[in-house]
Amino acid sequence: MSNLCMLQKFYREFFQLLASYAIPNVPQCKRPAGDDSDKPVTCTQMRPAQSITSAAKLRDEKIRQYKEKQDLEKRIFSPGALDAVGVDEEVQRENSLSLVRYWAFVGVSEVDLLCDEINLLASRESAAGVTETPSPEPPRPPLLISREAVRSTVFGAGYPSLPTMTLDQFYDLQVKKGMFPAPPANASSVVKAYPGEVQRIDPSEELAA
Question: What InterPro entries does the database record attribute to this sequence (predicted)?
Fold first, then answer.
């Protein structure tokens, strides 16, 4: 952006020099009255207002400038046009003025392109400055680590499931559910609750014997 503004400023100085020398038949790129030379000029400032000059007149003017630029280009860049020896001073003067007019036409078109690019960059910067603020994230619950939870993982059994009942309690619970058969009433020291599957031993009877 700064380089484009600097280049636009150089073109302004170039057109100001052309105006100060009063070279005839040179296109001018005028700035509005009171405009600061360091301020970038937009396309609307450099180009004629559409309300004053109709589109047809503007098109005719562009065509005329293009044809005149082509004529100047053929005259200037023809072999030996500017470096010919023994040419009359009037011819040399006209060739020099043609060279200045040619670069003035080039400058007008370049300034139009600079204005378009400056407007594009300015619109991007303004759009980037008005970006939508992202919605705040929902608050997360705090992470709490209790001393008991840490102690159980360090000094516990090493797995989260700890026994909640004895084997007798588990067997009685399964009997109530009908999963295991009930033990016989006249059980001896070694009672077969279910042949081939479950055997129940009473330690008290073993000690009494």
Answer: TAP42/TAP46-like_sf (IPR038511), TAP46-like (IPR007304)
In a domain, 200, yes or no: no
Q: Same domain for 43 and 121?
A: yes
Give the end of a domain, one of 69, 99, 127. 127
For residue 96, is it within any domain? yes
Beta carbons of 180 and 198 less than 8 angstroms apart: yes
- Do the beta carbons of residue 76 and residue 95 sit within 8 Å? yes
Residues contacting residue 23 through CB under 8 Å, at least 6 positions apart:
97, 100, 101
In terms of residue numbers, what domain contains 98? 2-127
